[in-house]
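Support request from a user on the community tier.

User writes: "When I paste my structure tokens into the form, the page sometimes reloads and wipes my input. The last time it worked, I copied everything first. Here is what I submitted, just in case something in the input itself triggers the reload:"
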């Protein structure tokens, strides 16, 4: 902790992706004043992406916070504020009654990779140690469980063997199923640095889409969805027949190669080329670069994991490393990129339905006995728990009666949303422990418990390279919010008393450090041994990698350098993986592939980033990206609304032509749910088919149909001042429109932006309701234009000489420039004659700023394109406009815009 003038700096880690960037929080002791990257943190060395750099803005959105416990005794009643004692006593009584009548497996806990390790540990012990059920799972099941099973089935343990420093020393970087430039921007900065330092570094990207990551690659393999295993086997075929394998390594350190060798003989590049949709010559090139490189590092993420064959995909890639000996040394190894800030920590404490503390397996009776002894309980249940989707299916069947959901939003993030929401509706008792009181899942809460947020609690997280960071409390939590571990401990005491079990004795923790110390002891002698770590050491020496056993001076940078693996015989095992198609294939009725994924500036279900206006500037609303030829066949053009259907549900969403897509393929971001658009978001379309081993669902692929959905009546509503609070008021209305989306715009004083399209005009009553919710009823301050014959009505609210509210119906041409004028707080006097006119550009003749490409410095697309048209290169853009000089997340897009400008000029 350091003082700087009248403020304090507290050490923390970013609350978003699994890179685990170090953050310094500037605080006055009560409020978070700002954040900056920690220059001493080995994950990011001071860099932060656009999301991390705005953590202080997300933390400041008190309007969205759950501040007090709220309870309803009947499902159709409104929740009422209650005291903590009453809230937790009621929860304990309901859980105890259900357990005593129906058994321990009639309750379940669904938790989150965004919890701290201490939170995770307590929930795991609560379910498996006190209650006696393994029904505790996590949203990490949606992102990392196939990486876990891939590692365990080949290397023997859930332990990424490589580290971030390997990016700087590798000679070949193989990126599969990851748009790293968007999903892990700070890690991508390290890739850019490595390429500058080593011009000979080869980068291969495997991705169906032409992303910013793949555009920068030396070789892009745009495979057809789900064909990864076939590609990896074909690469191994080439390595085998061109004698690129490390036969000595295979003989000394592995098992199972002969069986795999027989299998890959069926996967010649010529055969696989047609299956994958890429040239055979490119497969051969990829194999040669991978196999002949002095050091090859693989980075992979959801493109491999979120599949009904995710375990096979992960294992088939790891096969390539084992076969070439590309593991356990600098610059080499298979390296899964974690999706959430502490998915690794949750895996370490066994916070999933099939795991136990410290990488122990639930199916192993010796491991169950070890954990029972460590916890001081008679036994740990042997019956496997329900994994994420299985849990909600069990709720829908009535098998699980009570569900406790902490720090996650399944009513937005799980696939097959109709099933998930039906389950939440059927549950007898739902507890939601949350920071944000307005998530989709919070609507189903019988008991809402307010949790402390990022910056308000202490604990640890583990990033993708096994590095543990200690997070210090920066400010006190507002209202009656409490740390997640503390809520679970208090509940455990009360539940134990009602079940006749020693809840207080099992959960004696006075603070988060006491929880960490117990977790630490469970790792003694295990592959992730951290008995040499403490809060004090982490504060003094900084974040450390595991294993870090007692007596060690440092953690282990890389694993398996000695070729010894945590298996029964010390050898790694080749997985005999065969290609299997996606769980759902396209056909005449559903002829298009749907891919889902992340944007650069939004995070998961937007419960935090959705409150920060500047994070909408790059992409302001949900859209389905399609190839222009597919759009033309359906009579669609960019901006049109389309009806998108799968076998599970449908959405209305605008479409855009994108050269990222091959014909027959579409893409939609994962972020928007029913709080930000009409409909249930993209997971109304996704399927719940899952990998048989990891139980991870195939979120990356569904078969869909797309057709034009002409909705003739349009409305745009914008309101300045208290935009977040007004957005929260308007969100419950979204389901009442055929199509709607809402979001924010601007920086200093954001504007709420509501877009509506409908088959028929809205009723006068609904219009009045919108005006009331947005405080736009004062006729003395409103400029009007009405043309009933044409169905056009416009209202402009003017306060203190500035436009603070706009409602355009029937004709919305001026929406964008009015939005910009409102956000900038421009005076209305010079524009008074034009604000009601049907103008798509400002009356001055200047163009709209367009998207904000550089969010850090608020540099717009229009500014950049103008400079590019005048011959600016990247260095010139950075020197003049300063774009790309802060977090660097926009650099790949800047390069793309420069290249497009050169092509147009030619």
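"...and here is what came back when it finally went through:"
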């Amino acid at each position: 902790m350091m003082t700087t003038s009248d403020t304090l700096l507290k050490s923390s880690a970013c609350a978003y992706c699994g890179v685990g960037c170090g953050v310094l929080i500037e605080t006055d002791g009560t409020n978070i004043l700002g954040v900056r990257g920690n220059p001493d943190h080995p994950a990011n060395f001071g860099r932060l992406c656009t999301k991390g750099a705005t953590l202080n803005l997300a933390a400041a959105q008190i309007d969205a916070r759950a501040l007090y416990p709220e309870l309803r005794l009947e499902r159709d009643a409104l929740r009422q504020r209650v005291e903590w004692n009453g809230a937790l006593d009621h929860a304990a009584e309901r859980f105890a009654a259900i357990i005593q009548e129906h058994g321990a497996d009639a309750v379940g806990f669904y938790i989150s990779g965004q919890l701290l390790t201490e939170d995770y540990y307590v929930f795991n012990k609560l379910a498996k140690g006190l209650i006696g059920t393994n029904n505790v799972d996590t949203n990490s099941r949606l992102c990392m469980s196939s990486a876990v099973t891939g590692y365990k089935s080949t290397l023997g343990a859930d332990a990424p063997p490589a580290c971030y420093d390997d990016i700087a020393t590798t000679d070949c970087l193989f990126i599969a199923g990851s748009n790293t430039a968007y999903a892990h921007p700070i890690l991508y900065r390290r890739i850019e640095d490595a390429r500058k330092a080593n011009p000979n570094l080869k980068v291969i990207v495997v991705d169906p889409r032409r992303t910013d990551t793949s555009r920068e690659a030396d070789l892009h393999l745009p495979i057809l969805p789900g064909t990864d295993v076939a590609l990896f086997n074909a690469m191994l075929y080439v390595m085998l027949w061109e004698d690129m394998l490390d036969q000595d390594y295979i003989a000394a350190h592995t098992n199972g190669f002969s069986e795999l060798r027989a299998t890959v003989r069926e996967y010649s590049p010529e055969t696989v080329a047609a299956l994958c949709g890429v040239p055979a010559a490119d497969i051969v090139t990829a194999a040669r670069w991978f196999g002949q490189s002095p050091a090859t590092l693989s980075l992979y993420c959801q493109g491999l994991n979120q599949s009904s064959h995710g375990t096979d995909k992960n294992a088939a890639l790891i096969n390539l490393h084992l076969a070439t000996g590309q593991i356990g040394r600098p610059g080499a190894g298979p390296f899964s990129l974690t999706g959430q800030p502490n998915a690794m920590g949750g895996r370490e404490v066994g916070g999933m339905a099939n795991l136990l503390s410290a990488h122990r397996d639930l199916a192993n009776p010796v491991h169950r006995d070890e954990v029972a002894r460590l916890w001081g309980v008679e036994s740990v249940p042997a019956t496997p728990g329900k994994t994420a989707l299985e849990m909600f299916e069990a709720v829908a069947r009535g098998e699980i009666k009570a569900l406790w959901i902490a720090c996650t939003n399944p009513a937005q993030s799980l696939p097959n949303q109709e099933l998930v929401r039906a389950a939440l509706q059927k549950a007898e008792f739902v507890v939601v422990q949350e920071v944000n009181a307005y998530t989709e899942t919070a609507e189903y809460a019988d008991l809402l418990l307010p949790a402390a947020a990022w910056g308000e609690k202490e604990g640890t997280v583990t990033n993708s390279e096994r590095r543990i960071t200690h997070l210090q409390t920066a400010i006190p939590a507002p209202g009656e919010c409490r740390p997640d571990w503390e809520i679970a401990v208090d509940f455990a005491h009360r539940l134990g008393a009602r079940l006749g079990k020693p809840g207080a004795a099992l959960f004696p923790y006075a603070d988060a450090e006491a929880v960490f110390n117990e977790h630490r002891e469970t790792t003694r002698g295990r592959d992730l041994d951290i008995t040499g770590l403490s809060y004090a050491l982490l504060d003094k020496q900084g974040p450390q990698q595991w294993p870090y056993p007692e007596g060690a001076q440092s953690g282990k940078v890389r694993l398996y350098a000695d070729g010894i693996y945590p298996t029964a015989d010390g050898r790694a095992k080749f997985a005999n993986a065969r290609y299997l198609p996606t769980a759902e294939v396209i056909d005449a009725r559903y002829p298009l592939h749907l891919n889902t994924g992340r944007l650069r500036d939004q995070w998961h279900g937007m419960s935090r980033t959705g409150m920060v206006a500047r994070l909408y500037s790059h992409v302001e609303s949900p859209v389905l990206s399609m190839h222009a030829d597919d759009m033309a066949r359906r009579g669609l053009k960019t901006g049109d609304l389309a009806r998108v259907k799968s076998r599970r549900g449908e959405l209305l969403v605008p479409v855009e032509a994108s050269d990222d897509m091959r014909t027959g393929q579409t893409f939609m971001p994962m972020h928007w749910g029913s709080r930000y658009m009409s409909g249930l978001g993209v997971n109304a379309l996704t399927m719940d088919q899952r990998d048989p081993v990891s139980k991870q669902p195939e979120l990356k692929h569904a078969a869909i149909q797309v057709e034009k959905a002409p909705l003739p009546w349009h409305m745009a509503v914008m309101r300045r001042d208290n935009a977040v609070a007004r957005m929260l008021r308007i969100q419950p209305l979204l389901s009442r429109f055929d199509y709607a989306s809402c979001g924010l715009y601007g920086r200093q004083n954001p504007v709420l932006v509501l877009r509506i399209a409908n088959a028929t005009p809205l009723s006068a009553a609904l219009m009045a309701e919108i005006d009331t919710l947005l405080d736009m009823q004062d006729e003395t301050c409103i400029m009007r234009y009405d043309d009933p014959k044409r169905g056009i009505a416009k209202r402009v609210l003017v306060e203190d000489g500035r436009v603070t509210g706009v409602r355009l119906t029937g004709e919305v041409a001026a929406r964008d420039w009015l939005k910009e004028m409102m956000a900038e707080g421009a005076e209305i006097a010079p524009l008074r004659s034009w604000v009601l006119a049907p103008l798509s550009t400002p009356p001055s003749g200047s163009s709209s700023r367009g998207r904000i490409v550089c969010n850090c410095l608020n540099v717009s697309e229009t500014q950049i394109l103008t400079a590019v048209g005048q011959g600016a290169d990247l260095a010139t853009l950075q020197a003049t406009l300063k774009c790309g000089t802060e977090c660097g997340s926009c650099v790949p897009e800047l390069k793309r815009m420069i290249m497009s400008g050169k092509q147009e000029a030619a």
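Agent notes: The reload is a front-end session timeout and is unrelated to the input. The chain has a mean pLDDT of 96. The two ends are 56 Å apart (CA to CA). Escalated to web team.
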